[in-house]
Amino acid sequence: MAFNGKFVLNVATFAARQGADYQHLIALSSQSEAALSAPDSVLSREVYNSIIEAAAAKTEDPCLGLHMGEGLSLSAAGLIGQITQTSATVKQALEYCCEFANLGCSELPMRLEKAGGYYKVSLQQNKLWEQQSPLAYRHTAEGILVFTLREFQTLTQQQYHPRAVHLPWAPGAALSEYQRVFKAPLVFKKEEIAIVLHQSQVEQPIITADFELLRILVAHAEQKSAQIDEKIGFVNTVRQSMVQLVKPAFPTVEQVARYLNVSTRTLQRRLQEENSSYKQLLKELRQDFALSYLRRADLSISEVAYLLSYADISAFSRAFKRWQGVGPQAWRERNM
Q1: Please, how many CA atoms are within 13 Å of residue 70, restricted to the half-sphere of its CB?
Q2: Is 155 helix (H, G, I), strand (E, B) or coil?
Q3: Torsions phi, psi of 183, nearest 5?
Q4: Which of 93, 109, 146, 253 could tie 87 with a disulfide, CB 3.0–4.6 Å?
């Protein structure tokens, strides 16, 4: 579970203005408007994907994410928006945006890093999500980038444009729309999702800074963030880390422990406290990746077996049949 209900409500409201059926999108969440508005409302990735896919289909907008980033009210940022407005500098505001990104969407953690005379705001890629729904993944990532850029321009009170924008996919027929929205050099098929900003612009002071109010807001955000992390659980944290480390071989428990800056023993103990284990997570993740790969017509069964680190297609087929009750080819024929 990773998507805040209010975030999804804002998406549905925007899509409805573009021609989508608002009530239909809400119904896909299996929650009422009131329930989605609740502070603790969280939706699963699968439910969120269905909403974005339906919105894209109904609006017939191939650039839905870009347009959401442009069209959503900045008030949709909620608590994060309040924190940015009261921060001392733009850099501090962006740091808080990254720290509390899980208040809206925990599936794409944000990171701010300095390189030379520039700062880069990047989204940590989620390979499994991209495989499950390339459409929802791309629209969401692009929407977050554009929305972040708008926040940046509001904080600086200038229409600054990025030094560069990096995206891992091709623009297709929408190149001119990317150029219109970002007004910056675009680098496609790059192994990251990021906007690059000038150092001097990022280090500007914010005239609406309010230290006392910021302290109160940050304390509130820390509490809400901790509640979300607790609800999602350590198991999900480990699972997401494993997804990030797939290259394409699955990581060892030692590699994941290093990635999370904990000892292997601590990682295993905390998983046990949530009635799980690294072995069980690895098994579940291989199954998820197997289903995602099999939905791709461009991958043969033998290629799927290779990507999942099986010795040969026979070993993969036997394992898959134990999971699903049918072989991979039969499953693919039923689900393609």
Answers
A1: 11
A2: helix
A3: 50, 50
A4: 93
Q: What is the DSSP letter of 70?
A: H
**Structure tokens, 309:** 């680190």
Extents of the domains making up the chain: 3-202, 234-335
The bridge status of strand 118-123 relative to strand 193-198 is: antiparallel
Choosing among 3.60.15.10, 1.10.10.60, 3.20.70.20, 2.60.120.620, the CATH entry for 234-335 is 1.10.10.60
Asked if residue 39 has a cis previous peptide bond (ω within 30° of 0), the answer is: no
pLDDT tens column, 74-124: 777 778 888 999 999 999 999 998 888 877 777 788 889 998 899 999 998
Q: pLDDT per residue over 7-36, tens digit each? A: 888 889 999 999 999 999 999 999 888 888
pLDDT per position as a tens digit, 115-174: 889 999 999 888 878 888 899 999 999 999 999 999 999 999 899 999 999 999 999 889
Is 77 in a helix, a strand, or coil?
helix
pLDDT tens digits, one per residue of 300-311: 898 888 888 888
DSSP state of 73: -
Q: How, if at all, do strands 164-166 and 186-187 pair? A: parallel
Q: Is residue 111 within 8 Å of 122, Cβ to Cβ?
A: yes
Predicted confidence at residue 2, as pLDDT, reads 64
CA-angle at 123, arms to 167 and 201, nearest 5° = 85
